[in-house]
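This part of the workshop introduces the protein records we will be handling. An example says more than a description, so a record of this kind follows.
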Amino acid sequence: MSITATNQATYAIDGHVGHVGHVLQQTLVDLLDLTLLAKQAHWNLTGPRFLPLHQQLDTLADATREHADTIAERAATIGTAPDGRSNTIAATSRLPQLDSGTLRDDTVIKRITEIPSTTAAGLRQAIEATADDPITQDLLITTGHTIEQQAWLFRSQQ
């Protein structure tokens, strides 16, 4: 059995960067938007369940931000420049958005359950689309596990 080194040039030749890079870019955008939405809810939360939800929203934002960094670094590794600019996020995110202003705790639970669930559905599509790249797929599976768990933690409060 021989082992062949794979590098950016090999990815570029076989079209890997374009396909997997696009998948990683969309995943990055959705994760960054989820991070921002979690913080938006965190800052504007009101109601009797304020403290536990406030803390749980921070946990969601922190976990999502860490995964976004991993996904961006994977994109850079395979030769795709990750784009996390605010205008890119606003233009290409697939996530439902929150209303501005204060948000009641029951509304936050409902909406924050929907948003990670949408993110998780996108991750499942990304996992299927990257079957030819097990390293990227593994990162997406790990990210999907975290996002689905967070959605469950919010959903269980409804």
Remarks:
- DSSP finds six helices and two strands in the chain.
- The chain has a mean pLDDT of 91.
- The helical segments are 8-13, 16-44, 50-77, 86-92, 105-129, 134-155.
- Residues 15 and 86 are 28 Å apart (CA to CA).
